[in-house]
Specification:
Elements lengths: L13 E3 L10 H14 L15 E5 L8 H9 L5 H15 L1 E2 L4 E2 L2 E2 L3 H7 L2 E2 L1 H14 L3 E7 L2 E8 L2 E4 L19 H4 L16 H5 L20 H7 L6 E2 L20 E6 L28 E8 L14 E3 L1 E3 L4 E3 L6 E8 L3 E13 L5 E7 L5 E7 L6 E6 L8 E9 L6 E15 L9 E9 L4 E5 L14 E3 L1 E3 L10 E3 L6 E8 L4 E12 L5 E7 L7 E6 L8 E8 L6 E9 L8 E12 L9 E10 L5 E10 L4 E7 L6 E9 L9 E2 L13 E5 L8 E4 L36 E3 L6 E12 L1 E9 L12 E7 L6 E5 L24 E5 L5 E11 L3 E10 L2 E5 L34
Parallel strand pairs: 3-6
Antiparallel strand pairs: 1-19, 2-23, 4-5, 7-8, 7-10, 8-9, 11-12, 11-38, 12-22, 13-16, 14-15, 16-21, 17-20, 17-22, 18-19, 18-21, 23-37, 24-34, 25-28, 26-27, 28-33, 29-32, 29-34, 30-31, 30-33, 35-36, 35-38, 36-39, 40-50, 41-43, 42-49, 43-48, 44-47, 44-49, 45-46, 45-48
Length: 902
C-alpha cells in the first residue's frame, strides 16, 4: 500500500505532506519538485540551519556521561581493571540513576533503553532495570541472562567462569560464603551453612547471611523502596520458583542524547520539577496516568527558549527550510504574491519534550492575506495545523500538549500567502519548549573542587524517528507498506508488527529527507524471529525505492528471540533523501513468529556552517551552611574551544543542592557575568568518597539489660533479651511494622542500655540501630534524641566516649552504603568512633529520647576503617576505548548479506 501525498496545502485540520516534504513517489510530488527546481533560480530553498554547534556534551567528574551507550560505559567502567569492578561500578551508578516504582511505559512496552531511561525518566520496576542491565552488559561484551523468580525479576552476568546476580531493583548483592564471589541466582535461595549461621543449615542461607547491602544477618535491605526483609528475599529466590527466560531478555538500546544549539537558543535544565500539571511530564501509558511518583523527586524539567532573528541578513541561520520566503526590515514575508510561502523551524528537545508554547506576530494589510501554523513530529511527513489567521487576527498564542508530548524534535511550519507585495509579514516568533528529565543523572557538583568537561561530537545535525507500531499507528510514519499486520497492543513476549499473511513478503518503508546533504543513516530496532525459515532484513535505497541495498539479515531462529540490532550506512555525497525498508518473510503458518518490537532511525546531515561558536555554561546551586541556612551561588564559563575543561569550587558544609544548568552560544544572552556570581572562589580539594569496612561485631549474642522496661506498642518488646544482639537490626524505613524489630520507649523515658561483652575487649566503634516516631531524618538534621556512650572494665567506674553521631551529611555516607530510594535515613545504625580503640567489658548507651524511641540493634566493632575510594569516572578524552571483555556470539547469519558502502 502506497501512502499518497495530497495535492496542495492543508491549512485546516490534519494531513500528510505539504511544503515539499511528502512522499516522493506520487505524481503530485513530482510536480511539486519540478516547481521547486524552478523556484530555486529566483527564490529561496534553504539548506540545513547554520551557525549552530552540534552534539554538545556537558559532564562533570561527579556524574557519569549519559550521552550515549558507549560514552556511558566508557565513563563508568574504563578506569576499572577487572570485570567484577566494572560490574560493581555499573551497579552503583544504576542505584543512583533510577527508582523502584511503576515503570515508564511507552508505545505499549516498558522502557528498557538505558540512555532514554537515565536521561529522561528513571522510573523502573524490577523487570525494567533487569532489561537495562542486560543491555549494558551485552554492550560491554558480556553474556547476560534474564530471570523470573518468585514475584520478582533479576538479571545475571557471566564473568570469571560463572554467573553473578546484580539486583538493581532492590539494590542488593549477595556473595558466596567466601564473602567475595558475587552469587548467582540459583545459589541465593539454596540450603546452606557456614560460620555466619553458626553451622546451622537453612534454606536461603546466602540470602540471609551474605547480603552486602543489608542491616545485618537475616535483617533488612538498606537501599530498597520500602521495608524489605532478608526473609522475604529467601522466598523470592526459592529454588522452586526460578524461571530462566532464555527466550526474552527485555532489553533495548539505540538512543543517544542530542544537544544542538543555534545562536538564539538557550537550554536550561532544572534539577527539580516545575509542577504536577500535564504540560510538565510524559504520562505513563496505562499506569500512573496523572504523573510520576512524587516520593522520589526523580523528575526535573528543562526549558528551551528560541526566538529566531527574522530580519536580514542572518535570518537563514536559524531556519530549517524555507520556500518563497525573504527577510526585510520588519521580518519574513513571501517573495511572490498569490503563492504559498513557508518558513520551517526545528526544535530539538535533547530531553523528551512535554509541551510547547508558541507566540507569533503577523502584520497584515489586506483581508485576503492568509497565514497558518502547523507542527510535525515525524520530520514533516504528517502535519497538524494548530492555528489559522481568522477575522484579521494577526497574533498567535498557542499552547501545545498532545501534539508534541513524548517527541524529541518538532518542526514548526509558518505558512503564508500574501495578496499584495509586502502585505503580510511575520514580525516576531517565540518558541518555549518544556522537557522532562531525570534529576538523578544530570551533571552535578560535589563539595570542593569539580572538573567540568565540555565537548562536542561529530558536527552533523540529526533527524530521529521513534515510530509507534501498535494498533495500526505505524501508518503515520511510513511511505509504503505491504502485507503488514499489527497487534492492538504490544504483547511483550513478541513483536507487534508482523506479516499479515504467511509465506508472502511483508515490509515497511520509511523515508528520511534532510535539508542538507546526508552523511550517515543508522537504522534498526528490536526484532523477534522464531519461525522456521523466517528472516528479517534491513535495506536502504538512495533512488526513491528503485534500487535496494541489503545490509543485514536476521535468520537465526534460536533464542533469545528479542534481538536488538542497528546498522550504520555512510551516504555518498549529494543525497538528501534515503528510504529504509524493514522486510519480514516467513514460511511458518503462524506469521507472528517473525515480528518487530520497535524501530529507531537516525539520519545525520551536514550543517551549512560547521564553524565552532563559543559556548557559555552556567551552573546554579545552593551551599549548605553550618547554621542550616543556604548560600545561593552561580558560575558562568565561556568555552572558546572544545574539548575544554575547567574547575568549579563549591563551598559549604555538604554537597550542594543543584538548581539548574544552562547552555547557550555566547551572545545569546545580553547579560551573562563570567565566573562566580559573588566573585569568590571557595577553593577546596576534590571530594573523594570513603569505603566503609566493619570488623567483627563483639556484641553478637551477648547479654544486656535496660534501666527502663521496653513498651510493647505496635508489636515492639524484648521479653527474652535477645533481639538487640542477634545482628539483624531494623529496616531502613521507620513506621508500620518497623517497631516490632526492637525495644521501645516512650518520649522522655530516657533508658540506659547496658551491654556485657563477657570479657574485656578492644573496641573500635560503638553503635545503636534505632528509629522512632516522628520519623526524623538524620540527613536533614532532624534527630533530637541524644545517646551518650560510656565504657567500663569492672561495671562500676564508667568513662564517657562521646555521643552517637546522628546529624549526618551526604558526605558522611560511605560509597558502599546503599541509601533508600527516598534518600532518607529515618532509621539506621549511628556510631561513636573514638580516636583510638577503647578496652572495655561493659558498655552503656544512655539515651535521652525526645520521641517514641525504638532500638533494634547494638553494635560494638573490633575494627572500623574509612578508606578513600574514587569512583574513577572517565572523561571522553581519558583512558582507552571500550573493548569487549569476552566474546559474545550473537548468532546472526550474515553470509547472504552484501556489505555496501561501509
Amino acid at each position: 500500500m502506497l501512502h499518497p501525498l495530497p495535492e496542495g496545502d492543508l491549512p485546516e485540520g490534519e494531513g500528510r505532506g505539504g511544503g515539499g516534504i511528502g512522499p516522493a513517489t506520487t505524481q503530485s510530488m513530482r510536480k511539486l519538485r519540478g516547481t521547486l527546481c524552478g523556484v530555486l533560480a529566483v527564490a529561496v530553498l534553504l539548506r540545513a540551519a547554520s551557525g549552530e554547534v552540534c552534539n554538545i556534551r556537558v559532564t562533570t567528574d561527579a556524574t557519569p556521561d549519559y550521552s550515549d551507550l558507549p560514552s556511558m560505559l566508557h565513563s563508568i567502567t574504563a578506569k576499572w581493571l577487572t570485570t567484577k569492578e566494572k560490574c560493581w561500578a555499573l551497579f552503583y551508578w544504576n542505584h543512583i540513576g533510577r527508582r523502584q516504582t511503576a515503570p515508564i511505559v511507552l508505545h505499549g512496552t516498558e522502557l528498557t533503553d538505558p540512555i532514554r531511561q537515565f536521561n529522561d525518566y528513571g522510573y523502573t520496576m524490577c523487570s525494567t532495570i533487569s532489561g537495562v542491565n542486560c543491555a549494558l552488559w551485552h554492550n560491554l561484551g558480556l553474556q547476560a541472562r534474564f530471570w523470573d523468580i518468585s514475584l520478582h525479576t533479576v538479571p545475571e552476568v557471566f564473568y570469571d567462569g560463572r554467573w553473578h546476580m546484580y539486583d538493581n531493583s532492590m539494590s542488593a548483592l549477595y556473595t558466596l560464603c567466601d564473602g567475595q564471589t558475587i552469587a548467582g541466582v540459583e545459589e541465593i535461595g539454596k540450603e546452606g551453612q557456614c560460620e555466619a549461621s553458626a553451622g546451622k543449615s537453612e534454606r536461603g542461607h546466602v540470602a540471609k547471611y551474605h547480603c552486602l547491602y543489608a542491616t545485618g544477618p537475616n535483617g533488612f535491605l538498606t537501599g530498597a523502596d520500602t521495608q524489605r526483609s532478608l526473609e522475604e528475599e529467601v522466598d523470592c529466590f526459592d529454588t522452586d520458583g526460578l524461571k530462566y527466560r532464555y527466550y526474552y531478555f527485555n532489553w533495548d538500546y539505540g538512543h543517544r542524547y542530542i544537544l544542538n544549539l543555534r545562536p538564539k537558543e538557550t537550554y536550561t535544565r532544572f534539577y527539580t520539577n516545575s509542577g504536577g500539571s500535564p504540560e510538565f511530564y510524559v504520562a505513563n501509558e496505562g499506569k500512573d496516568p496523572d504523573g510520576p511518583d512524587g516520593r522520589y523527586h526523580l523528575r526535573g524539567n528543562g526549558v528551551w527558549h528560541f526566538r529566531p532573528d527574522l530580519k536580514a541578513p542572518d535570518y537563514a541561520k536559524q531556519m530549517h527550510r524555507a520556500l518563497n520566503i525573504n527577510a526585510g526590515a520588519s521580518g519574513l514575508s513571501p517573495v511572490r504574491t498569490g503563492e504559498a510561502a513557508e518558513a520551517i523551524f526545528k526544535v530539538e528537545g535533547a530531553n523528551v519534550i512535554t509541551s510547547q508554547k508558541i507566540a507569533a506576530n503577523f502584520v497584515s494589510q489586506t483581508e485576503n492575506d492568509r497565514a497558518s501554523i502547523a507542527v510535525s513530529i515525524n520530520n514533516g511527513l504528517y502535519w497538524t495545523t494548530v492555528w489559522s489567521m481568522k477575522n484579521g487576527d494577526t497574533q498567535a498564542s498557542i499552547d501545545l500538549l498532545e501534539q508534541v508530548n513524548g517527541a524529541y524534535e518538532v518542526l514548526l511550519k509558518i505558512h503564508m500567502m500574501a495578496s499584495q507585495p509586502h502585505s503580510l509579514v511575520l514580525t516576531d516568533l517565540g518558541i518555549e519548549t518544556r522537557t522532562m528529565l531525570n534529576a538523578k543523572t544530570q551533571p552535578r557538583l560535589n563539595l570542593g573542587k569539580n572538573t567540568v568537561y565540555i565537548g562536542t561530537g561529530e558536527q552533523t545535525e540529526s533527524i530521529v524517528l521513534w515510530p509507534e507500531l501498535q494498533a495500526g499507528k505505524y501508518k503515520r510514519d511510513i511511505v509504503e507498506e505491504k502485507n503488514i499486520g499489527s497487534t492492538p497492543t504490544n504483547i511483550g513476549y513478541q513483536g507487534t508488527i508482523y506479516p499479515a499473511k504467511a509465506v508472502e513478503d511483508a515490509f515497511l518503508i520509511y523515508r528520511v529527507e534532510a535539508p542538507g546533504n546526508l552523511s550517515r543513516v543508522s537504522f534498526g530496532g528490536r526484532f523477534y524471529n522464531r519461525a522456521s525459515g523466517s528472516h528479517i532484513d534491513l535495506l536502504y535505497s538512495l533512488d526513491a525505492g528503485k534500487t535496494w541495498h541489503p545490509v543485514w539479515s536476521l535468520r537465526r531462529t534460536r533464542p533469545p528471540w528479542d534481538v536488538v540490532h542497528y546498522e550504520s550506512v555512510n551516504i555518498p555525497p549529494d543525497h538528501r533523501s534515503v528510504w529504509l525498508k524493514y522486510l519480514l518473510k516467513t514460511s511458518d503458518p503462524s506469521p507472528s513468529g517473525c515480528s518487530i518490537y520497535a524501530v529507531r532511525i537516525e539520519a545525520n546531515y551536514v550543517p551549512a556552517d560547521a564553524t565552532f561558536h563559543p559556548l557559555q555554561v552556567t551552573f546554579d546551586w545552593s551551599e549548605r551552611q553550618k547554621d542550616g541556612s543556604t548560600l545561593e551561588r552561580r558560575h558562568t564559563q565561556s568555552v572558546p574551544r572544545v574539548p575544554f575543561k575547567y574547575a568549579i569550587n563549591v563551598g559549604g558544609e555538604d554537597h550542594p543542592m543543584m538548581h539548574s544548568l544552562r547552555v547557550n552560544l555566547q551572545g545569546a544572552l545580553e547579560q551573562a557575568t563570567e565566573g562566580y556570581s559573588d566573585g569568590k572562589d571557595a577553593g577546596g580539594d576534590k571530594f573523594i568518597p570513603k569505603w566503609l569496612t566493619c570488623g567483627r561485631n563483639l556484641a553478637l549474642n551477648k547479654s544486656y539489660s535496660f534501666s527502663v522496661p521496653s513498651a510493647t506498642n505496635w508489636g515492639a518488646g524484648d521479653s527474652d533479651g535477645k533481639k538487640l544482639t542477634r545482628g539483624a537490626c531494623g529496616p531502613s524505613y521507620a513506621g508500620g511494622s518497623s517497631y516490632r524489630a526492637g525495644a521501645l520507649w516512650m518520649e522522655n523515658d530516657n533508658p540506659v542500655i547496658i551491654l556485657d561483652l563477657g570479657a574485656p575487649a578492644a573496641c573500635a566503634s560503638f553503635g545503636l540501630n534505632f528509629h522512632g516516631y516522628p520519623w526524623w531524618d538524620a540527613l536533614k538534621g532532624e534527630i533530637r534524641d541524644k545517646v551518650e556512650v560510656f565504657t567500663s572494665l569492672d561495671g562500676r567506674e564508667y568513662h564517657s566516649q562521646g555521643f552517637l553521631k546522628t546529624e549526618l551529611r551526604w558526605t558522611d555516607l560511605p560509597i558502599n552504603y546503599m541509601w533508600t530510594d527516598e534518600e532518607t535515613m529515618t532509621s539506621g545504625t549511628f556510631r561513636c568512633v573514638p580516636h583510638q580503640r577503647v578496652t572495655a567489658r561493659y558498655v552503656q548507651y544512655r539515651v535521652s529520647n525526645a520521641r517514641a524511641f525504638d532500638c533494634a540493634g547494638i553494635e560494638v566493632l573490633d575494627a572500623i576503617t574509612f578508606e578513600p575510594f574514587d569512583p574513577r569516572l572517565a572523561f571522553p578524552d581519558e583512558a582507552g576505548p571500550i573493548t569487549a571483555l569476552a566474546p559474545v556470539d550473537d548468532g546472526l547469519d550474515r553470509s547472504e548479506i552484501r556489505r555496501t558502502n561501509r
